[in-house]
Amino acid sequence: MLENTRVIEAIRAARKNDTKAALATVVRVHGSAYRREGAKMIIDEDEKRVGMISGGCLESDVAAVAKEVIASGIPVLKQYDMDEDLVWGLGLGCPGKVEIYIEPIS
Amino acid sequence: MNKKAAFDAWLTTIEMEKSGAIATILKTDQTQGKRNSESLFISKDHSFVGSLGDAYLEEQVIQLAKQKLAEKNPSSETRIFQLLNKQEVAVFVDVFVPQPKILIFGAGHDAIPVANFIASSGFKTTIVDQRPLYITEERFPDIERIIARADDFKGKVIIDDNTYVIVMNHHLERDQEALTFALNSQAPYIGVLGPRSRRNRIINNIKASGSAVTESQMSRLYNPIGLDIGARTPEEIAISIAAEIIAIKNGYSGGFLKDSEFIHHASAVSEENG
After folding, report:
1. pLDDT at A89 over 50
2. ipTM
3. If pLDDT is split at 50, 70 and 90, which confidence band does A3 have?
4. What are the chain A neighbours of B267 within 8 Å (beta carbons)?
5. Is A2 in CB contact (< 8 Å) with chain B?
6. Is the Cβ pair B76, A36 closer than 8 Å?
7. Across the interface, do A11 and B77 touch by the CB < 8 Å criterion?
8. Could you tell me which residues of chain B have a Cβ less than 8 Å from any Cβ in chain A?
9. Between chains, do A38 and B121 touch, taking CB under 8 Å as contact?
10. Closest approach of chain B CAs to the CA of A58, in angstroms?
11. How far apart are CA B148 and CA B242, in angstroms?
């Protein structure tokens, strides 16, 4: 909840400064993902990020998608099916299937 | 256009610390292009901003949102809805409920880790003490501080049904005063530091002073305080108290997750329901 408050502040700031940004929200989780539905991250056009949508495995990829979303203005629903062995093997600790909705905000 | 209005209403609700929900149609390949990122905001008092572009869909979504907003600890969720033409649409309903609040009576040395751990866990934290030397910004940065004696509680201290109360004055009379005040509120949790025998003494004193203590009041009283983790130092005790409050807020009973099939009850339920 505290996290999302920070994200909301960042959304307000982006709007005030006329910075283009995208909002990524965890909308569906199957299995034991680190973050639950409703977790948010805002990514601005300078790739500055506020908030967390996974235990660290997805943030970079989502930021890349966010860049496209900011450019196109069209939201994207992205599904990540994380192989448990691979993810645990990397020590990232966020297995499961997660869907993330990335939408432009301006 | 309406997307922006719904989103703005949602942001405002969060900033004003009110309950509300925003429903967004998740676009899939089938709906891509046809639907233009529609959103509907639903406030706790059932006013609406925006639209999902389909009255039948809205009706179903509003019903779900209302149901979630009436829950104590609702979770955000994606649901598949069917339109009248049998087309299926995924809608994400994101629910916001205001940050829970913590009220701590007693600004002693051991209240410092309690206040700070709990504040960093996302609770809006307030501390009350009558001693200005104890209740300082230096000891409790970023925490609302109220200097008050029992006589001033009514005018200065607010406890609502979203406020978790911790009584830790290390002072029998002050604990009794704080507890009397807290018991007469809607607080879902009133934790009292100290052993059972001390609590009994305080309760007996309250009864002797002429106030009745009901069963419903006793059911919200937690003593000895904290989860059973053998805590000894002020920091360990603070973690034990914070963990107990988080468990109660989320509707969990505490204990080890070791060998459990699921981490969250809710995820277990939604898995079962497909």
Report:
1. no
2. 0.86
3. confident
4. 29, 31-32, 36
5. yes
6. yes
7. no
8. 7, 11, 14-15, 24, 26-28, 32, 37, 75-78, 92, 94-96, 99, 120-122, 262-264, 266-267, 271
9. no
10. 19
11. 24
Domains detected in chain B: 2-96 (no CATH), 101-250 (3.40.50.720)
> pLDDT at position B274, please?
33
- What is the per-residue pLDDT for A62? 93
Place of tokens 């006793």: B218
Please name the residue of chain B whose CA is at the shortest distance from the CA of residue A3. Answer: B122
* Identity of the residue numbered A34: Y
The strand pair at B124-129 and B144-147 is best described as parallel
- pLDDT of residue B10 exceeding 70, the answer is yes
Residue A102 has what DSSP assignment?
E
Q: What is the pLDDT at residue B256?
A: 94
Chain centroid to CA B33: 39
* Whether pLDDT at B220 is above 90: yes
Q: Give A38-53 pLDDT, tens digit per residue.
A: 999 999 998 899 998 8
